[in-house]
Design goal:
With 112 residues, this protein is an alpha/beta fold. It contains three helices and four strands. Strands 1, 2, 3 and 4 form a four-stranded mixed beta sheet that branches. Helix 1 runs parallel beside helix 2. The longest helix has 13 residues. It is elongated and about 45 Å long.
């Protein structure tokens, strides 16, 4: 969004269309959805896990777009008592894993 950022942070796994639309209509222009974790998968490769209901997130985003309200959507990584990303992988490896995961979602996030 252009201009000042007014950021709203979702609760753990929350995806409430009515509340989110109300916040955006009141001026929130960046929504941070909560939360994914970066973990070492059973295959030994970087893995993105957890997060809100991504189908619901896509539906909320569509409702916001239908109202022509410019809003950025980010996904947070980690949280209280969440695992730290495994340092055996570089930042580039984590980004590649995140980007591949993100592009497969019903509505990819704008960033994290």
């Amino acid at each position: 969004p252009d201009g000042p950022l007014i950021i709203g942070y979702q609760n753990w796994g929350a995806c409430n269309e009515t509340q989110t639309l109300h916040a955006v209509e009141d001026g929130v222009n960046v929504i941070i959805w909560f939360a994914t974790n970066l973990v070492k998968g059973k295959s030994g490769q970087p893995l993105i896990e957890s997060g809100p209901n991504f189908t619901c997130v896509a539906e909320v985003r569509a409702a916001i777009r239908a109202r022509d309200l410019p809003t950025a959507h980010l996904i947070s990584i980690g949280g209280w008592n969440a695992p730290h990303p495994d340092t055996a992988f570089s930042g580039s490896a984590w980004f590649d894993a995140w980007h591949t995961w993100n592009q497969a979602l019903p509505a990819p996030f704008d960033g994290f």
